[in-house]
Amino acid sequence: MTTPNLLAERYASDEMKSIWSPENLVRTERDFWLAVLKAQKAAGLSVSESSISAYENQIDQIDLESIRHRELVTKHDVKARIEEFNALAGQQLIHLGLTSRDVTENVEQILIRESCQLVAKKSVALLARWAEFGMRYSKFPVVARTHNVPAQVTTLGKRFATWGEELLYAYLRMQDVMASYPLRGVTGAVGTGNDLEAVLGSKSNKYQTFQGEIRDHLHTDKFMSSTGQIYPRSLDFFVVSTLSLVAAAPSSFATTIRLLAGDGLVSEGFGQGQVGSSAMPHKMNARSCERINGLNVVLKGFLSMFTSLTGSQWYEGDVSCSVVRRIALPNSFYAIDGLLDTTIRVSDDLSIYEEAFSAELASELPLLASGQIMAAAVKAGVGREDAHWIIGEQARNLLAARREGEPFSLAHALAKEARLGLSESAISEIIETTGDTLGQSVDQVAEVVEAVAALIALNPSWAKYRPGKSV
Amino acid sequence: MTTPNLLAERYASDEMKSIWSPENLVRTERDFWLAVLKAQKAAGLSVSESSISAYENQIDQIDLESIRHRELVTKHDVKARIEEFNALAGQQLIHLGLTSRDVTENVEQILIRESCQLVAKKSVALLARWAEFGMRYSKFPVVARTHNVPAQVTTLGKRFATWGEELLYAYLRMQDVMASYPLRGVTGAVGTGNDLEAVLGSKSNKYQTFQGEIRDHLHTDKFMSSTGQIYPRSLDFFVVSTLSLVAAAPSSFATTIRLLAGDGLVSEGFGQGQVGSSAMPHKMNARSCERINGLNVVLKGFLSMFTSLTGSQWYEGDVSCSVVRRIALPNSFYAIDGLLDTTIRVSDDLSIYEEAFSAELASELPLLASGQIMAAAVKAGVGREDAHWIIGEQARNLLAARREGEPFSLAHALAKEARLGLSESAISEIIETTGDTLGQSVDQVAEVVEAVAALIALNPSWAKYRPGKSV
Amino acid sequence: MTTPNLLAERYASDEMKSIWSPENLVRTERDFWLAVLKAQKAAGLSVSESSISAYENQIDQIDLESIRHRELVTKHDVKARIEEFNALAGQQLIHLGLTSRDVTENVEQILIRESCQLVAKKSVALLARWAEFGMRYSKFPVVARTHNVPAQVTTLGKRFATWGEELLYAYLRMQDVMASYPLRGVTGAVGTGNDLEAVLGSKSNKYQTFQGEIRDHLHTDKFMSSTGQIYPRSLDFFVVSTLSLVAAAPSSFATTIRLLAGDGLVSEGFGQGQVGSSAMPHKMNARSCERINGLNVVLKGFLSMFTSLTGSQWYEGDVSCSVVRRIALPNSFYAIDGLLDTTIRVSDDLSIYEEAFSAELASELPLLASGQIMAAAVKAGVGREDAHWIIGEQARNLLAARREGEPFSLAHALAKEARLGLSESAISEIIETTGDTLGQSVDQVAEVVEAVAALIALNPSWAKYRPGKSV
Amino acid sequence: MTTPNLLAERYASDEMKSIWSPENLVRTERDFWLAVLKAQKAAGLSVSESSISAYENQIDQIDLESIRHRELVTKHDVKARIEEFNALAGQQLIHLGLTSRDVTENVEQILIRESCQLVAKKSVALLARWAEFGMRYSKFPVVARTHNVPAQVTTLGKRFATWGEELLYAYLRMQDVMASYPLRGVTGAVGTGNDLEAVLGSKSNKYQTFQGEIRDHLHTDKFMSSTGQIYPRSLDFFVVSTLSLVAAAPSSFATTIRLLAGDGLVSEGFGQGQVGSSAMPHKMNARSCERINGLNVVLKGFLSMFTSLTGSQWYEGDVSCSVVRRIALPNSFYAIDGLLDTTIRVSDDLSIYEEAFSAELASELPLLASGQIMAAAVKAGVGREDAHWIIGEQARNLLAARREGEPFSLAHALAKEARLGLSESAISEIIETTGDTLGQSVDQVAEVVEAVAALIALNPSWAKYRPGKSV
After folding, report:
1. Are residues B335 and B267 part of one domain?
2. What is d(CA B230, CA B226) in angstroms, rounded to the nearest whole number?
3. Nearest to residue C165, comparing CAs of B232, B370, D290?
4. Are residues B380 and B460 in the same domain?
5. Is B388 considered catalytic here?
6. Distance CA C313, CA B166 (A)
7. Is B374 part of any domain?
8. B147, D403: Cβ pair inside 8 Å?
C-alpha cells in the first residue's frame, strides 16, 4: 500500500500535484529523451523514423511498479527507467551520449519552472484580493498596534496594502530569479560535452546544431556555461529562498488575523457544517490562518535542507544531495502552494466586523492621541523630551485607572500640568480628531493598489484564480 | 490518484511505514476511544456492553475516503472521524468528555514510543555490526588522517569503535528520553480535567478510577501533571533532537567511507546487476553512503521544523503546530529509519581492501613517525618546540620531493640536523616501528565492544535484525 | 579597537561572560597544561619542581595581544599560546606528548560544564518564581484560550504550573545530559594514546597513573573510550539542544505575557524613568518579553550551527568545525543566560491586574459553559453530536449579536431549542457556576509546586538568585 | 572588560568592522537626525542655524559608556541616544515627529547597503583570481570525479570556471537585490506619516518637500510605499539569503581543495613560521579551507535567525526581532567578509602540483575511457545497454586487480569480449587519447572568463583588492 504524502494530499492543489507526480516525471523525462534523440538525428546521427516512433508510441505506457522492480536490481533509478522505456520500445537508442544528470537535472528544472509559474499566478490572485480590501477600507480608521499595544491610528486598508507590498516585492524577486534561471543543459558526465562529441563526432558544428535543438525543446537560451555533473545546488537554495520570501506576507497576514480573531474583530470564515472544536460547541477558530503559519514553518524546514546543500559539493559532484532534492523539491512547492491557496480562501471568506473595530478605536483614542498632544506642546514651546515625560506619566495613570474600572480623563489630567501649556479643551479637541489623523495612508494604499493593478493587467486571468475546496 | 510519500516509499521499512499509516492511526485512535469508554464505564458511567460491542465490531472498517468527505464539511479531522465511527456503530457514545487533543496527542505519543522502540532496535543491530568490525580489525594498522592529511597510525578497528561509541552514547540518550517520556493524558479541552468531571461527576474518586484505567491502557504512569490543551512542543523537539543524535555516527561513518572509496580502499558493496553510472560503465559509487548523508540532511530539516515550534505557544495552545507535526513527525521517523537500514546494509556489504590499506600505510610511515621522532629528540635533550621546527621543515622537503617524483629519505635528512642529536639508524628504526605504535587502541576497542556486547545481551534478537531489500 | 560582542555585552551576566572570557580560557588552559605536566611527573617523567614553579608563577601573566602576534606567524592558535607560556617561563616542557586538541577539547568541556551548572542554577531560580505564582493564583479563575479564542475556565496558577512543568522537564533532561557527559581526555593526536606512551614509555602502568591524575584534575571519571582527534560533535549538538529545551518554557511564557499585555491584563513591569516609545509617550510595551522571544530565536540559530556539524566528520577529525564552535559555543550560553535572566526579571516585576482578568471572565462565561451545557444535554439523553450542533449554532448567534452590540441571552436561546431538553434556569445555573469549574487544576498545580520545592530543597541558594540590572 | 566579538576580531576586515562599529552606528544616526532636522527646516519648520550647529559640533563626541548609563534607566536604546545628543548640544530639537524606527531602520539599511557594496567588491576580487586560474589551466587535463570516484577527463581550468560561474551568478543576484532594495523611509510610528504632518502641518506640499530632502540624504528613490512601524523582515531574510548564495561557490571550492590536499595534489599555502600541528611536525593542513567551510556554516546559522523572523509580524510591528537583528545583521556580514577574504588569500597562495595531477591522470586513463569505449562499441553496432554491461564488468575486474597489486589490461580484457567487436589496439588507442577528450571545456572556460572580464572592466580597482594579514 502506498504511503500518502500528507502535505500534498491535504494541502496542495491538483495542478501542483500533477506537476510533481511520478507519472509526469516519467513522461517529461521521456519527452526529453526523444528531444535529445531527434536533436542527435538533426546533428547527423543515423536514427530511423521508425525507431523514434517506436518510442513515441510508448510514452504514455507508464508502469511505475515495473520501473521499481528494475531499480531494485540496478540500484540506479535512471538506468531502471532507460531499461523500461527501451523494453517497451524494443530499442536501445535513447540516452546515447548522456549521463543520468543530463536528464534528471533538466527535467527537474523544467518542473521547477512550471511550479514557479503556478506560484506566480497564485501570488497575483492573492494580491488582487488584498488590493480590493485595501481600496474598500482605505479610509476606515482602526487602532494600530506596535508591540501588541495600541499605538496610533491607521486604516484597515493600509494593513492590506502593507501585506500587499511585501508580497509584491517577493513576486518581483521571483520574476528576477526566473528571468535569470539558467538550465544545466546537456553536457555529459562531467560537463565537458565530451560524451556528446563521442556520439556526434567533434567535427564541424554538430555539437552546436544539437544544442540549438535542445534549446528549442527547453524554451530558453539561458544555460550554465560550465558545470560539473550537476548544476550548483545554490541555485535550488535560491529558488526555495524566494518561495520563502513569497510566504512571508501571507504568514504575517495570518498572524495578525489570528490576533484580531482573538479580540472578536474578524473571523476567517466558518462554513456550513463546520465545527470549531469537538469539545466546545461555541468555538470559531482561526484554524486556516494557523495552517498558513504552520505551512510557513514547513516550507522553512525544507528550505533548511537546501541550505545544507550549498557550498558542500565534492569535485564535479557528489550525490549526497540526491535524496534531499527528491524529497525537498516537490514538498517545498506543495507547501507554498497550500499556503497560497489557503490564504486566498481565507481572504475570500474573511468577515470584518466594522462596529467592533470602531468600538475599539473609540475607547483607545485618548492614548492614541499622545503623540499629537506632544507635538502640540512642542509647538507651544515645550521641550520635546519634557513633554514626552509629562504625557507619559498621565497616560500610565489612565491605564491604571482603566484596570480598576475607574473613570479618568486624560484631557483633564494633562490640562492640570502647567508645564505643558495646553488647555483641557485644546487637548480634548486633539483627542476627538485623532481618529482622522490618517496621515498619508490613503495615498500609500493607492500606490500599492496601482502597482497591483498594473500587474493584474499583464495577466488578468491570474487574478481570477480560485482554489478548489479543501479539508 | 494518491501522491506517494517518496521518503517513506523509497527509504523507510514496512515496519515504520505501518506505524504511521493512516489506517493505523485510525485504528489506534478507535482503540483509544474504546479504552476511554470502558474506563468511563468502570468509573460509573452507564454504558451498555452492546454499545461497546457495536463500536468494537467496526474497528477495522476503515474507509479513509469516507472520512475525508466528512472532513471537507466539518473542516475538523477528529470530528470527521468521530462521525464516521459513530455512523458505523450507530451510536454517539465515544468522545464524551473529551477534546480532540485528548485523543490525538496520546495517539501520536503512542506512535512516537513505538517508533523510538524500532529506532532502538536498529541502533543495536548497527552497533552489533560495528562491534564485529571493531574486533576483526582491532590490531590492523592504517593511516589515521586529521584535516584529511596523514597524521599518525591508528587501527581500522578503532575507527569502528569510535563510530560505535558515538552511536552508543546516542542510544543511551534515547533510552533516557524514553524513560522520562510523559504522556499528556486525558484532561480535556484546557487540561483541567473538568470535561471529564462534567461527565463522570466530581464526587468521590471517579476521576481517579478513570485515570487508572487509562494509565493501564497506555502502559505507563508517566503523565504531565499540568498542560493546556496540548503537551509542550519542546517534547517533540527533544525526541527528534535525539533522533538526530542517533543519526550522527552513521553519517560520519558514511562520510569517511565515501572518502575511503575515493582512494580505492573500501567499497560499500555492489550487487549483481547494479549499475554505477548510466554514462560511465566503470563507476562503482558509494551511493548508499551518499544516501545516508542525504537522509541526515533530511532529518535535520524536519528537526528544524520542530525547533520552530518550541517556545511559541499562545495561551493554552494554538494549532499552528498542527500541519507541521502532521508532516514532520512521521517523516522524521521515516528518515532515521531509512538512514539506519541503509547503514546496516552498507555495513553488511562492506568490502575492505586490506592490501590497499597496508600499501598506503607503508608509503606514509616516515611522515607518521614525525611525532615519535620529536619525542626521541626531546628525550635526548632538545627543546620540544625546537625539535618541532626542525622536523617540520624536513618533512615539508619530503612532501615537495614526493610531488616531483624525486627520492628523499627523511631519516637521512634529519640525521644531518646536528641540533636534533639523532643518528640516521635511530631515526630509521623509529620510522620502521611506527606501524606498531597502536598506543592503547586495542584496549579502547575492547571497551567499546564490551559495552555493545552488554547491550546486545539485553536484546539478543535486535542484533540479528536485517533490513529488507531496497532500491 | 575591539569589536564588542553585543549579545554578551547587552544580555549576558558577568558570571557567564567571565567563564568564556579570553583570559579565562588562557588561564584554564595553563592550569590544564600544568596538571598534565604534574601527572607526567607522577608517572615518572623527570620534571624539576623549579620548572613547574617557573610556569606556575606566570599563569596570570596574560597578554592577549602578544599571543595574537604569535598566531599571526604560526597560523595556529594553540602553538601561539604554547610559545607565549614557554617564553614567559623560560621553559619548553608543557604540551609534551599532547596534541592541540588534547588541550582545547578538555578545556572547552570544562567551560561547558561550568556554564551548564550556571544554567541549572538560573532554571531553579526561575522555577521558584513560577511556583510561587502557581500557588498564589492556584484558585484564581481566568479565561483559558485555545486557538487564541476563549475556550473554558482555567486558573492563572495553572498557567504558571504548566510553564513550570515544561521547564522542570527541561531541567531534568539537562541533569541527565550532564550526568552522562563524557570528556575527551588526553589521548593524543589521533586518540590512540600513543603520543603519551612515547613520552612516558609504554612499560608498566605509567599511562594509567597519568590518566588517574588527569581524572582527578578534571573531577570526573566519565571519558570517551575511543575518539579520533576530537570528540564527536554530536555531543555539542546535544548539549545545545538541551539549552534550547530549557529556553522553550520561558519563551512560551513570554509569548503569552505579550498577548495578555495587549489586552491590558498584565504588565511586565515599567521602571522609574523607563520609556516605552520615543514617539508615543503613552506606550508600555512588553519589550523584555519580546527580548526573551528574540533570544530564543538567537539560540536556535546557534543550535542550527551545531546541527550542521553532526555527522560530517572526515576520518579522525577535520577542523571545519573550529570556527563554528569558537563562535557558537560561548554565544549559545550567552543567549540562554540572557534569556533566563530576562525571564527572572520579568517574573520579579510582573504586574497582574486581577480586576481586569475577572471582568474578562464574567463577559465570556456563557461561551465557556458550552461544553458543560452539552454534557448536561447528553445526560438528559440527547446524542452528543446532536447537542454539539445545536449549541454551536446558538453560540455563533451570540457572537454575531455581540459584534453588533446587541443583547443576546444564550440561556434563553437554548431553552427554546426543544431537542436539548434543558430549561432556561438550568442553563443559566450552568453558566453561573462555570467560573467554578476548575476541575483538577488545584491539585495539578500542587503537584508541580511540590516537585519544584523538592528541587529547591536540594539547592536552596539557587532559588534566591537575582540577576543584576540590565539595559 | 569588553567581551570581544571573536567572529569579527579573528576573521572580519577592518573595513567591515568599521561599518558596524558602535561608534559608526551612533555617528550615522546623528547624521540622519541632522538630515531630518534640516529637511524639516526646508519644509518650513522654524529651526535656527545655531541650533543645528550646536548639534553638528557634537557629532563626533561619542561616549558609549554615557549612552549605556542612560539606557539602564530608560530601557530604550534610541531614547538614551536622543538624550545624550541633546545633552551634548543643549537642545531638544532632534527626533521631532519621528519614532525610533524612523531612525534605526533607515540607519541599518544604510549600513546594509554599504556592507553589500563591500561584499560585491570582494566577490569581484575573487572572481578575478579564479578567472586567472581558469585561463592558466584551461587546457590542463585532470581526473574529474563524481561521487568522489574517477569519472572522466576535465581540465583544471574548467573547475575554476565552474566555481567562478556559480559565484558570478550569486554576484548578479546580489546586484538584483540591491537594485530593488527599498528603504523604509521616514513615516512615523505606524507608517502613516501622520507624526510628521503633526510637526510640519498637513497643508500644501510640506510633507513632500521633506521627503525629497530625505531622499537626497539617503541617495535613493526606492522606498516602501506602505509599512507599519518596521519594514518587512523578509527583506533582511532575502539580503542574507543572497549572502549565503555568495558563500556557496567559495565553500564548494574549499571543500574540493581540502579533498585535493588530502591526495597531495594541491596545498593552500604555508607561510614562513606557520605550524600545521602542535603534535605532528610534518602536518600541512588545509586549515584555511576548513575555515571557509566553517564560516559558511556560521553564516547559515545567522541566516536561520532571519528565516525565523519572516512571516511572524504582529500587527504594525512587534519587536521580538530587535535582539535578533542586532546580533545577526553585523555577524552575517562579518561571516561573509571573513569567508571571502580567506578564499582570496587561499587563491593567492595556492600551490598546484602539476606533476602529481598528471601522474594521477595517467593511472586512471583506462577507467576514464569507459564511456568512450562504449560509444565506439555502439557505433560498431552494439546495443548501448549491452555494451554498458560488458565494459562495466571488466572495469570492476580491473579495480579488483589493482587493489591486489596485480597487473590487468582493460584493453586486453575487452578485446576478448567478442560481443563488443573492438580490437585491443582500437581500445588502446581510445584509452591513450582519452586525456585529450576535453570536449567543449576550453570554450566553456573562455565564456566564463569573458563574463568575469566584463565585470572587472566596470570596476577595475575591485579586482586588485588584497585582504590584510590574518591569524
Report:
1. yes
2. 10
3. B232
4. no
5. no
6. 12
7. yes
8. no
